[in-house]
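Late entry, written up from scratch paper. The run itself happened at the end of the previous shift, but nothing got recorded in the book at the time, so transcribing now.
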Amino acid sequence: MAAAADAARLIHRIYLGEFEVQRKADSTPVTVADQAAEALILDRLRAAAPGIPVIAEEEVAAGRTPAIGNEFFLVDPLDGTKEFIQRRGEFTVNIALIRDSSPVLGVVCAPVTRCLFAGGSAVESAFRASSADSLANAARTVIRVRAVPAEGLTVVSSRSHATPETEDYLAAYSIAKRVSVGSSLKFCLLANAEADLYPRLGPTMEWDTAAGHAVLVAAGGLVLAPGGGPLRYGKPGFRNSFFVASGTLVPQALPNRAASGP
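Output as recorded:
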């Protein structure tokens, strides 16, 4: 948790100043904030758990992907780089521990709002903390998904990755409100009883979702792949299938197809 909070503080300092935007081999953007935050997190994880491999977004982009077994970390040092570049504030630091293909512990930290979400089956609960000073020492509030409101669902979706398939899927639901937000904050809105459904019928990588997934499940929610089983981790290339996340709602089955692309 302290690693995520310190990385968030570092990212925020860079966010408040001037920074250059570069392009990776797959044409996606990257900044010094992504790189510096990842270096900090890697140092902390390797010191704290030297025997557990770390799969981190920028390391993988540079061709450095360690072999994994039943247990490994997934790290996205800056989830929502586009939101960071456009100075929208909706970006997070994501750190998750995967065990036997499931996320058992996750930490999601939002640098701008100084809010941290954490939880997983390893600790059997989910909580939220916020502080203008030390997030690591901030008071914790237990969070839990809500019952579906009688007036209809609040649906969260990606600000940058809307798809026609998503709209087709949502046509079957009674929706009272829609919220667009970047990064893994979508999972956190569900976990914090602020929303009910998040379908993702588009490409994501495992480091995008694992931390938020762990928090949501610990808060009583679901993250399901096509076919109705839980979204699993350690897949070839660390690419996700489509998935749907929800609170107490049991969502309709997704189309049985995989997402393509990063």
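DSSP finds seven helices and 14 strands in the chain.
(Scratch paper discarded after transcription.)
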